[in-house]
Design goal:
Layout (H helix, E strand, L loop, with lengths): L27 H25 L10 H7 L3 H6 L13 H17 L45 H5 L2 H36 L1
Helix pairs in contact: 2-4
Length: 197
């Protein structure tokens, strides 16, 4: 590399005992492992308490819950029920609780008619219109009661959860192919019977 212009020449100093000032990072893999195990133990201690027991309000009721409670999708939005079309019900228990909440809300709901003289279907009439109103939300039900400790039965001990899940998943995956194969087999047998007769 050449020098350009009228600049001062470098006076580089390379005798500074650099090896004493080197910062090594040999403990990095060990630190990584320690941090990871610490995160795992923290998640194990907090996970069940934080996420498993808390019942929280979602973004809205599912379409299946509305259907079971007898509320239309557009009607729900008109009477202050929030709808979440993306949510799916993963358990019958949760669905049942939400349907009960919807029914309780419907029983307390007062819909004022647009024209006092001409109430439409679904509008409140009579004494309901004079009742005291509130905007308080229907409270969430209590969390599921904890089961008392008990002995594990022999049947539960022999039950293989992982194997059962794998079998169910496999059956679901191959269901269509098996049905098609069975239909083909039945058709061939029916054709054989026709040729024999």
């Amino acid at each position: 590399m050449g020098f350009a212009h009228n600049n001062v020449l470098h006076a580089n100093h390379f005798r500074k005992d650099w090896q004493r000032r080197v910062r090594t990072w040999f403990d990095q893999p060990g630190r990584k492992l320690r941090r990871r195990t610490a995160r795992k133990t923290k998640a194990a201690t907090l996970g069940t308490v934080r996420y498993n027991r808390k019942v929280r309000e979602g973004r809205g009721f599912t379409l299946a819950e509305l259907k079971e409670a007898g509320v239309g999708r557009k009607e729900a939005r008109g009477v202050g029920i929030v709808v979440d079309h993306r949510r799916r019900n993963l358990s019958e228990e949760g669905k049942k609780i939400n349907v009960e909440r919807l029914l309780a809300y419907k029983s307390k709901l007062i819909v004022f008619p647009r024209k006092a003289g001409k109430p439409k279907k679904g509008d409140s009439t009579g004494d309901d219109l004079n009742a005291a109103t509130t905007r308080a939300a229907v409270p969430l039900p209590d969390a599921y009661p904890a089961e008392a400790p008990r002995k594990i039965t022999a049947e539960e001990r022999e039950f293989k959860a992982y194997r059962t899940l794998r079998d169910a998943r496999s059956n679901q995956r191959h269901e269509g192919v098996r049905k098609a194969r069975q239909a083909k087999k039945d058709e061939e047998e029916a054709n054989k019977k026709k040729t024999i007769l």
